[in-house]
């Protein structure tokens, strides 16, 4: 019961944030709406016992990526951007998106969780599934190579960011 | 879960080419601030040598095929083929880059480091057997390419190219990931072989609507990356705006790797549901060929023309994918190999013609090239004939095997329409040749300096490979045929 | 007449999370297509990536696996890397053109 209430609260936060991100005029408002949406998603992670991801979402996404966004918005000329026309006339594409979503949502609503079959659950249900301990065991054993490669990816991103934004190299 | 997670030497050896390239790229960045303005040439040499060493390591690693790192990557004939292909593309790119960068006064170690990082990403893409690895490799390659596309930061065309490539690339990645998420949910796995096993299992009783939706989402992502219709619209702008050597690289390296990953996902994981892919691939292949070829007819800018031609070639390769057989896979592999050489060769000539600031990239700038630089004109003719698909060049056998694979798979109409398309393509390629040989150079044209050693080497190597593949296709084709069965 | 899950169940079913993620993803995609300000367009991509992560976590929770969590962790890392490069590219564009309109950044003919 309590879980459901929280679900509704976080889902409302997420959706309201998302819709405001897409519709607000000023980029700063969009960023703030996006932050609230991300916070809502973080809450949903917590509801599903993904505590580590909850922390990463707050620290990395809201604390890192979004602050970066705000910095960039600060560096560019906002007033001019806000006066410009905000939307394309791709209404057809938007309508197609809406129709597709409607169909999918209808499918789920009418058939509920039965609308598709899930894959087999893990042979041994991880003890206290979703906790940081299991995650780290998995991350540093089976997924060690992707983890190392993610560091390579960040290195590329650093080089790229410096390349693009620095005045003189 | 493996008890011991220390990688064995064998596993490390299978991953050695990537490790070597990463190491060298990092060393280049460490050395970069220590070297003076005129000492940048050594980075080209270092990356050239390291790529040569990495090719040797890939060949050596192919002697001991198998999976590594809990089946994250797999070294088989297929991955070795594409690893070597992207590295060769890298070598040729570096050859045509050095002089260009010096001319634009942007020669720096970061360029070579980013090329190497991008190649590492592509190597991971082609050898990944797990959607996570595939995704990380893809991003590694893409992020490096975004930066390379905008490498000359003060050039507006470069900015625009990088921005479009980045925005549409990340958009495509989001679609790909959403498809992966749904596949993970319905099958419970991200490992390609495991997904295949689940889909083949008659007891698993999957809901086909959800699987189809997920594959469609993944298709959007893949189609963006290989610039297949209806998601090809980014390619002309990005290819036209990026620096010419980078365009050469982007149109072969990331594309070949994206096709390799597409092939592997399609043939390994989703082979059991191929009926659902086929109409999608069929339509996309046809649309890609038609859009690419007909739009290329109207172009006056050589880079943009080659961009549309590269879309059309993606369409031919999509035909091979639609055939969905070992022959089709082998044909796609052969085609990608020949396409790599002929396209990089053509772009090497474009890089040479364009000169400083890329001011000479209109078709009229080719006028009288046969008198001004007969050797260069002859080389470009070879590449263009090969792109058209004239016999005795690689392009002919590439198209031949692709249409043969389509006919074997009973897709007569697709093969016929594809052949008609290549007839259309002949028009715009031959038009370039006509301009080179039949039109006199106008008087105000500046003197063309002799091509640099790097561009000469790249041109001759690419031309030699194009002709070699056109005369002895069996060398590569046999290997491709043998390795095509590995990804089943 | 199928029964609509409007009543409050004791446990949130998986499909609710999935519906939420679909709506989030489509909102992001629609925003990408509709908005003209480059920074907002990029924010819409972040929305889409969050929908992806939500799907991964929901499935992971339901399957009692942690693999989905690992995957969404990687998605976040990549999103951070993309944001760094992307915003740097946007800054360069702004420096050279002083506009953030998508359509304005189009000097090449179509």
Provide a descriptive summary of the structure in words.
Chain A has 169 residues and is mainly alpha-helical. Chain A has seven helices and no strands. Chain B has 488 residues and is mostly helical. Chain B has a two-stranded antiparallel ribbon with strand order 1-2. The longest helix of chain B has 32 residues. The N terminus of chain C is likely disordered. The longest helix of chain C is centred in the last third of the chain and has 31 residues. Chain C is 71% helix and 0% strand. The radius of gyration of chain C is 19 Å and the shape is elongated. Chain C has 110 residues and is mostly helical. Chains in contact: A-B, A-C, B-C. At the A-B interface, helix 7 of A face helix 2, helix 5, helix 6, helix 7 and helix 9 of B.
Percentage of residues in helical conformation of chain B: over 70%
Strand-residue proportion of chain B: under 5%
Which percent range describes the beta-strand content of chain A?
under 5%
Through-space gap between termini of chain B: 25 Å
**Which parts of chain B are unreliable, with pLDDT below 50 for 5 consecutive residues or more?**
none
| Spatial sequence of strands, sheet with the most strands of chain B | 1-2
Q: Into how many domains do the coordinates of chain B divide? A: 1
Radius of gyration of chain B: 22 Å
Helix residue percentage of chain A: over 70%
Strand element count of chain B: 2
Largest interface: A-C, 89 and 79 residues
Instruction: Assign the CATH topology of the largest domain in chain A.
Output: Four Helix Bundle (Hemerythrin (Met), subunit A)
Category from helices, strands and their pairing of chain B: mainly alpha
Shape of chain B: globular
Query: How would you characterize the largest beta sheet of chain B?
Result: 2 strands, antiparallel
| Low-confidence regions of chain A | none
Question: Helical region count of chain A?
Answer: 7
- Quaternary structure state of the chains depicted: heterotrimer
Largest sheet of chain A: none
């Amino acid at each position: 019961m309590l879980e459901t209430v929280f679900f509704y609260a976080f889902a409302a936060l997420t959706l309201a944030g998302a819709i405001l991100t897409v519709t607000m005029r000023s980029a700063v408002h969009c960023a703030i709406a996006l932050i609230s949406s991300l916070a809502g998603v973080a809450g949903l992670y917590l509801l599903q016992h993904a505590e580590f991801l909850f922390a990463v979402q707050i620290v990395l996404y809201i604390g890192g990526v979004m602050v970066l966004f705000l910095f960039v918005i600060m560096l560019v000329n906002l007033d001019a951007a806000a006066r410009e026309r905000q939307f394309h006339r791709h209404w057809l594409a938007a309508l197609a998106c809406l129709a597709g979503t409607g169909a999918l949502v209808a499918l789920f609503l009418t058939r509920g969780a039965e609308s598709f079959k899930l894959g087999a659950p893990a042979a041994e249900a991880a003890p206290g599934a979703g906790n940081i301990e299991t995650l780290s065991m998995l991350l540093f054993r089976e997924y060690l190579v992707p983890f190392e490669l993610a560091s390579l990816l960040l290195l590329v991103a650093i080089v790229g960011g410096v390349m693009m934004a620095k005045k003189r190299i | 879960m493996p008890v011991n997670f220390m990688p064995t030497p064998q596993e490390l050896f299978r991953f050695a080419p990537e490790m070597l390239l990463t190491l060298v790229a990092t060393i280049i960045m460490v050395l970069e601030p220590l070297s003076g303005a005129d000492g940048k040439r050594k980075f080209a040499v270092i990356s050239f040598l390291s790529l040569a060493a990495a090719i040797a390591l890939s060949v050596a690693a192919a002697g001991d095929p198998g999976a590594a790192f809990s089946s994250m990557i797999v070294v088989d004939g297929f991955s070795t083929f594409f690893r070597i292909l992207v590295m060769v593309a890298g070598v040729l790119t570096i050859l045509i880059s050095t002089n260009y960068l010096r001319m634009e006064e942007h020669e720096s170690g970061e360029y070579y480091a980013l090329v190497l990082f991008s190649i590492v990403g592509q190597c991971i893409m082609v050898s990944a057997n797990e959607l996570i690895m595939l995704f990380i490799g893809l991003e590694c390659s893409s992020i490096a390419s975004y930066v390379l596309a905008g490498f000359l930061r003060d050039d507006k065309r470069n900015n625009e190219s990088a921005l479009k490539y980045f925005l549409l690339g990340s958009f495509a990645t989001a679609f790909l990931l959403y498809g992966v998420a749904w596949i993970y949910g319905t099958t419970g796995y991200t490992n390609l072989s495991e997904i295949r096993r689940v889909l083949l299992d008659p007891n698993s009783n999957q809901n086909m609507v959800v699987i189809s939706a997920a594959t469609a989402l993944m298709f959007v992502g893949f189609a963006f990356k290989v610039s297949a219709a209806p998601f090809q619209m980014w390619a002309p702008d990005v290819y036209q705006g990026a620096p010419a050597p980078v365009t050469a690289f982007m149109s072969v390296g990331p594309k070949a790797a994206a096709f390799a990953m597409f092939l592997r996902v399609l043939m390994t994981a989703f082979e059991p549901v191929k009926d659902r892919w086929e109409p999608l691939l069929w339509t996309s292949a046809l649309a890609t060929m038609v859009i690419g070829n007909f739009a290329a007819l109207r172009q006056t800018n050589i880079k943009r023309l080659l961009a549309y031609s590269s879309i059309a070639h993606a369409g031919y390769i999509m035909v091979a994918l639609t055939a969905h057989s070992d022959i089709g896979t082998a044909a796609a592999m052969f085609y990608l190999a020949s396409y790599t050489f002929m396209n990089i060769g053509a772009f090497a000539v474009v890089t040479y013609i364009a000169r400083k600031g890329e001011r000479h990239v209109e078709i009229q700038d080719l006028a009288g090239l046969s008198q001004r630089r007969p050797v260069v004109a002859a080389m470009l003719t070879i590449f263009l004939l090969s792109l058209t698909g004239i016999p005795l060049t690689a392009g002919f056998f590439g198209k031949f095997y692709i249409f043969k694979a389509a006919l074997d798979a009973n897709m007569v109409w697709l093969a016929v329409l594809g052949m008609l398309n290549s007839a259309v393509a002949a028009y715009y390629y031959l038009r370039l040749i006509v301009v080179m040989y039949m039109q006199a150079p106008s008087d105000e044209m500046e003197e063309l300096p002799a091509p640099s050693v790097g561009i000469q080497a790249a041109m001759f190597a690419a031309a030699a490979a194009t002709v070699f593949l056109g005369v002895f296709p069996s060398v590569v084709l046999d290997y491709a045929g043998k390795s095509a069965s590995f990804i089943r | 007449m199928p029964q609509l899950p409007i009543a409050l169940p004791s446990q949130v079913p998986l499909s609710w999370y999935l519906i939420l993620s679909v709506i989030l993803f489509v909102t992001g995609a629609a925003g990408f297509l509709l908005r003209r300000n480059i920074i907002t367009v990029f924010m819409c991509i972040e929305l889409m990536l969050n929908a992806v992560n939500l799907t991964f976590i929901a499935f992971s929770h339901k399957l009692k696996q942690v693999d989905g969590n690992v995957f969404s962790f990687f998605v976040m890392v990549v999103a951070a890397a993309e944001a760094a490069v992307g915003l740097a590219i946007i800054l360069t564009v702004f420096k050279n053109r002083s506009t953030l309109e998508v359509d304005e950044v189009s000097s090449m003919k179509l």
